[in-house]
């Protein structure tokens, strides 16, 4: 059982116009097996939350704590966070020219586990996971995210999540830019990993669409850098009907 | 990040780019075997203003340094004829007529040039190796003759110390295929300058690969012209400059014949406060060179603050009847987003940096086409990067 605790998290970012406070006290606890949907309008700080927890150097933590099973995540380097069991599926995965997907996956797996995976089982695992995500075998020889379509990039993110077996995954707008077929395949992938490993999920999304495929246990509405309201799946249904206007007026 | 990419430059008279305004056409340069016909260059001279002039002094000063020649050892498969050529003894000097003082010094300072002749129709599977070892002040001149329809690979291994002025003169027969790989594996204090010039025969295919990792200062002019129609020249380069290193490559493709092809691709990485690299890429398409297809590219990856990469492509076009002419030049900083992406997958910083830099060079290395060189290079680059982690920015 793993617990990710985010306590009173304040985050700022340096812009040409000066320092801007984006997160203004976020409290959130995610346990193994739970799926938390973080919903909110553009610019509310959802992605900042994701990247801050993953350790992107652009963001400065000005106050608060992030604990993974009691360990201080904020003191860890980016790769240490991944080794501790955190995973961030990015909204815009980065191209790495000249590095093949298979080399990348093997290198990451070796780094996370502290030893190289056994070749035979590893090859089988990768192949199986790629098949599940309807990815062609030739994918493994392509350069990381280079020339990938939007859907391919997202499937590649979920492929990594399945193979690296994190404890807590943050999915940053994994649904954006996907057609219905791709959305279903990606969602199936997330559900499969949840079922197999008891993954805890922070599902960041702008739309309710993905929640038809990945059922949230909790829904948090994010407005202006903090959680404005939370509840169960019924909250998502209400958002679907009413939109975010109610919160924006209050903010 | 600065980028130019005119993939289809139009043929409206001369087309130049960057900060350099050439003095007349690149094709009208003065040539001579007489060292004194070339003045001592100064920092304002166009051809030397990016150069490490202070380091290059020993290869620019003939009088102060009577050279006794470098040690040049040739290991060649059976059938290859290895000999010597005196000053003025053909074919020496028939293709390479010095265009600058350093080339003139290398030529004049080498009494007996090394001559490597690949017989017509020979198909060599093993490479010819030429080990050039420098000491104090040394000069060399190597003449490589590729017979008609021959196929061969020549690997030049530059090692040692001191200041070396070395020329390589490549004379290709019709339909021949030749790869010349020049490895600059000098000691840290070595200085190396010279000209590698080729005449690519009718329907011949030439590939020159410059790999500059070692040495304090390297200044190589890698140039090619054509001896007939249908020739193809490919100039590839890879360099990695650490603190205190100044690596300069000046390429020139003289499209003087119709229906010829050329491709220039140089890639370099820089790490360390005083790391310097220079790439000047000249291409001239003469009026006679109809049907020319040419492309040149330079990419630099700046790994730390303070390093400086100069990249100047120059394209002169004297005819509109061409297939294509383009160039691309980009110098970019090490990409923090790539690093974050890799590290967010658990890959530690030094390993992630290696992946990115290996990836940067990968496509170029794959184009070399000499498996043993390709394999060794990846290891060499890894070694450079280990060095890097010892001296952070």
Automatic annotation (TrEMBL), chain A:
Keyword Endoplasmic reticulum in record: no
Signal peptide: none
SMART domains per UniProt: AAA
GO molecular function, one term: ATP binding
Domain of life: Bacteria
Domain (ABC transporter) ranges: 4-249
Protein name as it appears in the record: ABC transporter ATP-binding protein
UniProtKB/TrEMBL annotation, chain B:
SUF system FeS cluster assembly SufBD core domain location: 138-360
Any single Pfam family the record assigns to this protein: SUFBD_core
Gene Ontology biological-process annotations: iron-sulfur cluster assembly
Disordered, as annotated region: 1-26
Compositionally biased residues, Polar residues: 1-10
InterPro entries (alphabetical): Fe-S_cluster_assembly_SufBD, SUF_FeS_clus_asmbl_SufBD_core, SUF_FeS_clus_asmbl_SufBD_sf, SUF_FeS_clus_asmbl_SufD
Family recorded in the similarity comment: Belongs to the iron-sulfur cluster assembly SufBD family.
Protein's name according to its UniProt entry: Fe-S cluster assembly protein SufD
Organism of provenance: Demequina activiva
